[in-house]
UniProtKB/TrEMBL annotation:
Cofactor dependency: [2Fe-2S] cluster
Residues annotated to bind [2Fe-2S] cluster: C88, C93, C129, C133
Organism: Mogibacterium kristiansenii
Protein name: NAD(P)H-dependent oxidoreductase subunit E
Matching InterPro entries: NADP_DH_HndA-like, NuoE-like, NuoE_dom, NuoE_N, Thioredoxin-like_sf
């Protein structure tokens, strides 16, 4: 299991709420999905520690929980940063150089797709289309859209948020 590079900072209140939500569904057929959705809602992601609580409380093996967490795109194994960075890899963006932009973002932040910087400042996710094909390639940082960008612009864009 890949462990996040960001230390787990769950609180006692979050754990109490998770255990309460698990108790609401315990024993129900098909309860794993709603429990995991509740856990993601509470913590914002599903780190090992949260999956372990779910396993311990439900008796569902960690392997099954991990399998569900990695299969469904709605679940994240890493926390989201203060600034979520997204690079569009849809056809128009990709053809116009989004792959190179993505590589530069990874290099600048020192993280891979789906990860968060150790200071919690930035997280990186790719997406398939943001609907701004005329601006390709597109990168979004904290909700701000940057279009027609090149790899050499990435560092200056990210510095605005550092």
């Amino acid at each position: 299991m890949k462990v996040s590079n960001v230390p787990f900072k769950g609180t006692a209140e979050q754990e109490t709420e998770l255990r309460r939500r698990i108790a609401e569904h315990k024993g129900e057929k098909g309860s794993l999905m709603p429990i995991m959705q509740a856990a993601q809602e509470i913590y914002g992601y599903l780190p090992y520690q949260v999956q372990k609580i779910i396993s311990d409380e439900t008796g569902i093996p960690m392997e099954k929980i991990y399998g569900v967490a990695t299969f469904y795109a709605q679940f994240s194994m890493s926390p989201k940063g203060q600034y979520e960075v997204s690079v569009c890899l849809g056809t128009a963006c990709y053809v116009k150089g989004a792959g190179e932009v993505l590589e530069e973002v990874k290099k600048e932040l020192g993280i891979d797709d789906g990860e968060c910087t150790s200071d919690g400042k930035f997280s990186l996710d790719t997406c398939r289309c943001v609907g701004a094909c005329g601006l390709a390639p597109v990168m979004i940082v904290g909700g701000d859209v940057y279009g027609k960008i090149t790899p050499d612009q990435v560092a200056d864009i990210l510095k605005k948020y550092a």
